[in-house]
Amino acid sequence: MERLLMTTEDGSHTIFIPEMDEHYHSVHGAIQESLHIYIEQGLLQTTKNEISVLEIGFGTGLNAYLTYCYALKRNISVNYCCLEKYPLTESEYSILNYPTEIFPEHSHIFNTIHKSEWDETIEIQARFKFKKNQADLLTFQFDETPQFDLVYYDAFAPGKQPEMWTEQVLHKVAATVKADGILVTYCAKGAVRRSLAATGFSMERIPGPTGKKEILRGKKTF
């Protein structure tokens, strides 16, 4: 599958897949989108000093990189787990400009998360443990007990990857979330909101980043 590098409106890169007519990030700004949805409306909404994060769709590694940087600033310990079925190659991720656009002092971390071994937990820093799984969410087996405090649901859009947004799959993810855990996603479709509500989340629509009216955030209630 062909993947092309593109520059978004805030100067940060994204990847475009012509075959799917889909971008990994908003064309209005990859960094501004990730900061707004996953950091400001996700990570910074947590109240614990130690959290476990699940990311569905590791992609370019931007969300993981920003989580590391902001967790370090806020003195939050993080156990980070992500799933990615189609990882970028070194020739693709090595030219992404995120480390030069934001937190250049941590540029080595961006390289570390990409070069780390798949399916192995590594300690990137004393308070940041990281594991990326090369896996398909549809068949991946999670632990039976809830383990995550925060979920970044960043799969491709329902119109492009509908199998990732069924109530059955969302229920599978919801089952991994602790009581009062948070899920955030860029997708604001009513069907997705209703499915997440049916899986145990109290859902709310909140203002989205530049170029997007609304996003969804939920808190696990049962």
Average residue-wise pLDDT = 97
Q: What CATH architecture do you see?
A: 3-Layer(aba) Sandwich
Give the C-level CATH assignment.
Alpha Beta
Radius of gyration: 16 Å
Tell me the overall shape. Answer: globular
CATH topology: Rossmann fold
Tell me the number of structural domains.
1
- DSSP summary: helix tally: 7
| Poorly predicted regions | none
Derived from helix and strand composition plus strand pairing, the structural class reads alpha/beta
In CATH, what is the homologous superfamily?
Vaccinia Virus protein VP39
What is the strand content?
25-35%
Please estimate the helix content.
25-40%
Largest sheet: 8 strands, mixed
What is the tally of beta strands?
11
Strand order of the largest sheet: 6-7-5-4-8-9-11-10
> How far is the first residue's CA from the last residue's CA?
40 Å
Describe the model.
The protein has 222 residues and is an alpha/beta fold. It has one domain: Vaccinia Virus protein VP39 (Rossmann fold), CATH 3.40.50. Helix content is 26%, strand content 30%. The chain is built from seven helices and eleven strands. The protein has an eight-stranded mixed sheet with strand order 6-7-5-4-8-9-11-10, sandwiched between helices. A three-stranded antiparallel sheet has the order 1-2-3, with no helix packed on it. Strand 4, helix 2 and strand 5 form a beta-alpha-beta unit. The longest helix has 13 residues.
